[in-house]
Amino acid sequence: MPTHTIARAALVGAGALALLGPIAATSAVAAPDRGSATALAAPYAVEPYETVNVRSGPATWYDKVGSVAAGQPRGAYCWKHGETIRDNGYVNDVWVQLVEGYVSAVYLKGDQYGGLPASATC
Fold first, then answer.
1. Of the ranges 37-41, 94-98, 102-106, which one carries the lowest mean pLDDT score?
2. Choosing a second label site near 63 at 20 to 30 A (CA), which of 51, 95, 97, 121?
3. pTM score > 0.70 for this model?
4. Strand partners, 55
5. H or E element: which one contains 98?
């Protein structure tokens, strides 16, 4: 079966498109800082403005499965409503599903959906 190369674009910040580069349509993309771990390409990219905990679900009572450092872009799939988070003068109940788990949009650059389109619900 032939492999076709496609280009994937990610929504960054409040809507600017950035070319992330070609990937094979039938392959997985290796996470650069996770050794041999692989993850399927995500349609969006988000970036926290400060280090944020990654949870297994959209609330702080879910297990912490990791963290993302400030300025470290991550692949994102969609957003959903969860626990309301109040921090840094912001209040929001939107959680963004990353490749690794969920993060509160309060800590992501962009709008109330962490830079994802309003239609990108989980």
1. 37-41
2. 121
3. no
4. 64, 102
5. strand 90-98
Q: Which of 38, 36, 47 is nearest to 12 (CA)?
A: 47
- Contact between residue 38 and residue 18 where contact means Cβ atoms under 8 Å apart: no
- Cα 122–9–70 angle (5° rounding)? 75
Dihedral angle computed from the Cα positions of residues 51, 87, 59 and 72, in that order, rounded to the nearest 10 degrees: -20
Predicted local confidence at residue 32, as pLDDT: 40
CA 117 to chain centre: 12
Residue with tokens 């309060």, as numbered in its chain: 106
Q: Which residues of 76-86 are buried (b: 16+ CB within 10 A; e: fewer)?
A: bebbeebbebe
Please, which residues bridge with residue 102 across strands? 55, 97
State the average pLDDT over residues 75-104: 95
SS3 4: coil
Q: What is the pLDDT of residue 42?
A: 86
50 residue type, one letter = E
Instruction: Report CA torsion sign: 15, 21, 26, 28.
Output: negative
| CB-CB contact of 79 with 112 (8 Å) | no
